[in-house]
């Protein structure tokens, strides 16, 4: 020892030992000065990060001696002073007894921060452990609470927001936080809290969101507060924020109206015409066309522009002319619809002579061809005039297609004249023609998705409960109501659907349509977590296998996007059984696979792990599971072409099981939807030449090519928006519907019901950033666009984007990109630069320039 110790250390050691000796002596007059010297030497010692401060190191051997001295003293100021010192010493001597905390509570109550940061952190750890111990043994915890509330302000002042939040979380009193947060710390505290939400178990997650919401409201950050209110799904809260913002700043209220419009939330009581117009998304089509002009993609494209078949290497003489031409024309119909979606003109259908193209399709192909007008006129309610002439066609298929087109045009936009309701109403009761009736039911579901309209419910409910109607109509009515009342937990619809399932014959429930009746029920509980418990219990009473399938659907929908690990494990567990298809039904396993993706898609870590699980399922799963894996990958990475996912899907697209291959090809389209990804375009062209003799696979390749260039690369189908914080319920609903149609591909997509592909429309939204001035006119400014960086809990003011390029708005944003204003000339009213953003001149800007 003596050899290593320097002179001054030896001196310090001897001094400290003398002070300890003094404490042992009986002379009480010496104690005070000894304690003060001890305190000074402990506080003034500085330590490096790696070593224990010297005084603590030298006092450690005497720790037991000092505790004995402490026990022997009578209660006095000196005794509590010694308790403070012991509390600090106990840090180095900790054996899980939580001594630091014990002495701290007996000490003289001076500010814990005065002993330094490390000590405070140590205390907060012990408080958490002690609290757990006491609540298990039901002992009171008030003294712990008070101590914690002394520590929290210290943490907040010293940039340790995370520690403050964690401490309050452990003591289950996060609602105390807002009073300690000030203007300097609120942003970081809320950022940390919101990023924790995915990792917490209910009810803590809701509590965190509510507390963060309250803090934002205190600091008048309304757009942030509204986005949390939307995440909570609390309409009352949304309305309060909206109205409160209106009292402060009308421009801010407009920005919030844009936010609500993007999420398709309606506040019916609003009188202001301008706000109504914003919330009903009526401006969308105008700005979308303006964006197209700006990016120079207004020129309509033909399917051949997309296929680029001259690049496919097929030997001459083996031209694809020999393949079923109606099937090829049908594929071109969809490609044309997706590529020109929302651009209000194209070269096949919306021209004067559109009939000729429609007649190039057979029967149900005509239906999809006529409906594709709706896709091209998307969001433009005035485009209904283009559809009108087809409503009077002699061909039923064309009429039915036109009816569906009306629904498509009105998806995602609202109009006070309610054209969709008025036009579709007459066809709903058309008993002679089932096809037109089906189209009207589906069209209503799309046009009013997410609107929770009572009149739609009253109109469609009888179709579900009338057991005389076939399963197709009943199931589609249930599905449409699921879309309209998505995430509303509507009791009447729930009971109607459950009732029907119990009353119908087994043979009817066996029909492949049954899954959509279940999906309609499941969508009512989208993202509502525990609210679905009662429904799940009721489903257990249904003996038919559909009970199990629908049970899985309801469960995965109710936890969609929550990242709930227990539910993901439960779904993986369901995939574990190797069932014999002849004896029992295994469809619920396909839904469970989709469920893993659906639940995990909310946060990155879960999504990463889901990708690995899918790899295992692909190796060891039964055929029904293997067919669902590509679909799940498509859902997990919609419009987000990650390289590893593309490689994986490319491998599956050559699988021996044709169903796996077809699903993988479609998933490639979903993953690249609207991104124009060149790598993927190349892969699809290779697949087209590989499958040039397989009509079904080729059909799917074409459709994926259409999806890849959706809206000529301006539209995304990813249901997450606002910096990937908010999930659009109708977006998820539309994606899920399409994927569930793919679980029985022969009947639906390759059969007569290929129009199920149009359900993607609810998830489609331009991936633009458009900046507007105070009069809602486009205002070009320079912005930096780059990969988003996660800055939670980082010190200082870290950069939020990396590898940026500077553009002038309007610009397109890819899935993981973020934008920020490049100059300070304008102030953005929204906290996230995405979609429509209102800007206001920065009053302080000019002065800086002149200096």
From TrEMBL:
Pfam families: PC_rep, RPN1_C, RPN1_RPN2_N
Domain 26S proteasome non-ATPase regulatory subunit RPN1 C-terminal as annotated: residue spans: 792-845
Residue span, RPN1 N-terminal domain: 16-312
GO cellular component: nucleus; proteasome regulatory particle, base subcomplex; proteasome storage granule
Record flagged with keyword Transcription: no
GO molecular function: enzyme regulator activity
Any one of the GO BP annotations: proteasome-mediated ubiquitin-dependent protein catabolic process
InterPro entries, per database record: 26S_Psome_Rpn1, ARM-like, ARM-type_fold, Proteasome/cyclosome_rpt, RPN1_C, RPN1_N
Sorted UniProt keywords: Proteasome, Repeat
Gene3D superfamilies: Leucine-rich Repeat Variant
The family this protein is said to belong to: Belongs to the proteasome subunit S2 family.
Entry function: Acts as a regulatory subunit of the 26 proteasome which is involved in the ATP-dependent degradation of ubiquitinated proteins.
PANTHER family listed in its UniProt record: 26S PROTEASOME NON-ATPASE REGULATORY SUBUNIT, 26S PROTEASOME NON-ATPASE REGULATORY SUBUNIT 2
Name of the protein described by the UniProt record: 26S proteasome regulatory subunit RPN1
């Amino acid at each position: 020892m003596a050899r290593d110790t320097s002179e001054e250390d030896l001196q310090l050691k001897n001094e400290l030992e003398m002070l300890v000796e003094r404490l042992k002596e009986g002379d009480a007059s010496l104690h005070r000065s000894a304690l003060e010297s001890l305190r000074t030497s402990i506080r003034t010692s500085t330590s490096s990060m790696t070593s224990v401060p010297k005084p603590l190191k030298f006092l450690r051997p005497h720790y037991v001696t000092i505790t004995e001295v402490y026990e022997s003293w009578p209660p006095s100021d000196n005794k509590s002073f010694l308790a403070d010192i012991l509390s600090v010493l106990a840090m180095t001597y900790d054996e899980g007894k939580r001594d630091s905390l014990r002495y701290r509570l007996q000490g003289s109550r001076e500010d814990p921060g005065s002993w330094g940061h490390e000590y405070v952190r140590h205390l907060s750890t012990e408080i958490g452990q002690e609290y757990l111990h006491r609540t298990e043994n039901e002992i009171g915890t008030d003294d712990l609470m008070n101590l914690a509330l002394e520590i929290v302000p210290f943490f907040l002042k010293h940039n340790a927001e995370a520690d403050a939040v964690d401490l309050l979380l452990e003591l289950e009193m996060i609602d105390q936080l807002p009073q300690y947060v000030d203007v300097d710390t609120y942003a970081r505290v809320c950022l940390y809290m919101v990023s924790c939400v995915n990792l917490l178990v209910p009810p803590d997650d809701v509590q965190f969101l509510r507390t963060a919401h309250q803090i934002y409201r205190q600091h008048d950050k309304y757009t942030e507060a509204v986005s949390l209110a939307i995440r909570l799904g609390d309409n009352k809260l949304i309305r309060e924020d909206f109205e409160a913002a209106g009292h402060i700043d009308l421009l801010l209220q407009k920005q919030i109206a844009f936010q609500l419009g993007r999420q398709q939330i309606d506040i019916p009581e609003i009188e202001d015409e301008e706000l109504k117009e914003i919330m009903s998304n009526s401006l969308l089509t105008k700005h979308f066309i303006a964006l197209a002009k700006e990016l120079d993609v207004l020129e309509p494209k033909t399917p051949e522009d997309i296929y680029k078949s001259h690049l496919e290497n097929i030997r001459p003489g083996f031209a694809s002319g020999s393949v079923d031409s109606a099937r090829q024309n049908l594929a071109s119909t969809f490609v044309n619809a997706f590529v020109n979606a929302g651009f209000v003109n194209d070269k096949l259908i919306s021209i004067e002579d559109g009939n000729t193209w429609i007649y190039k399709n057979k029967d149900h192909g005509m239906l999809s061809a006529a409906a594709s007008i709706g896709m091209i006129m998307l969001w433009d309610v005035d485009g209904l005039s283009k559809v009108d002439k087809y409503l009077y066609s002699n061909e039923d298929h064309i009429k039915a297609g036109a009816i569906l087109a009306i629904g498509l045009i009105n998806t995602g936009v609202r109009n006070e004249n309610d054209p969709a309701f008025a036009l579709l109403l007459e066809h709903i009761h058309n008993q002679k023609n089932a096809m037109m009736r089906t189209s009207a039911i589906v069209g209503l579901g799309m046009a009013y998705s997410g609107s929770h309209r009572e009149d739609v419910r009253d109109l469609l409910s009888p179709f579900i409960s009338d057991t005389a109607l076939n399963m197709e109509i009943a199931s589609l009515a249930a599905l449409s109501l699921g879309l309209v009342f998505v995430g509303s937990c509507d009791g009447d619809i729930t009971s109607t659907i459950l009732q029907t399932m119990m009353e119908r014959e087994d043979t009817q429930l066996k029909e492949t349509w049954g899954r959509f009746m279940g999906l309609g029920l499941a969508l009512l509980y989208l993202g509502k977590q525990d609210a679905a418990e009662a429904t799940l219990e009721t489903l257990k009473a249904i003996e038919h296998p559909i009970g199990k399938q629908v049970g899985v659907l309801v469960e995965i929908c109710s936890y969609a996007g929550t990242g709930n690990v227990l539910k993901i494990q439960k779904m993986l567990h369901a995939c574990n059984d190797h069932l014999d298809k002849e004896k029992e039904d295994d469809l619920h396993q396909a839904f469970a696979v989709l469920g893993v993706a659906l639940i995990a898609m909310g946060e990155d870590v879960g999504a990463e792990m889901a990708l690995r699980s899918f790899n295992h399922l692909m190796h060891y799963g039964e055929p029904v599971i293997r067919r669902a894996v590509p679909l799940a990958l498509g859902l997990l990475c919609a419009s987000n072409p990650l390289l590893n996912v593309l490689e994986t899907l490319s491998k599956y697209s050559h699988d021996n099981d044709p169903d796996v291959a077809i699903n993988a090809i479609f998933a490639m389209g979903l993953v690249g939807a609207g991104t124009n990804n060149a790598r993927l375009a190349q892969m699809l062209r290779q697949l087209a030449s590989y499958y040039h003799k397989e009509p079904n696979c080729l059909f799917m390749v074409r459709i994926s090519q259409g999806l890849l260039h959706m809206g000529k690369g301006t539209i995304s189908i990813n249901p997450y928006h606002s910096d990937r914080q908010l999930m659009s319920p109708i977006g998820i609903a539309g994606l899920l519907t399409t994927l569930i149609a793919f679980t029985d591909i022969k009947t639906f997509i390759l059969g007569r019901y290929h129009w199920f592909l149009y359900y993607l429309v609810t998830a489609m939204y331009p991936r633009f950033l458009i900046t507007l001035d105070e009069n809602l006119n486009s205002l070009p400014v320079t912005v930096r666009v780059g990969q988003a960086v996660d800055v939670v809990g980082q010190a200082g003011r870290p950069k939020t984007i990396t590898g940026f390029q500077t553009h002038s708005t309007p610009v397109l944003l890819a899935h993981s990109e973020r934008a920020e204003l490049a100059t300070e000339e304008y102030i953005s009213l929204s906290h996230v630069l995405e979609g429509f953003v209102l800007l206001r001149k920065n009053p302080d800007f000019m002065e800086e320039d002149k200096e």
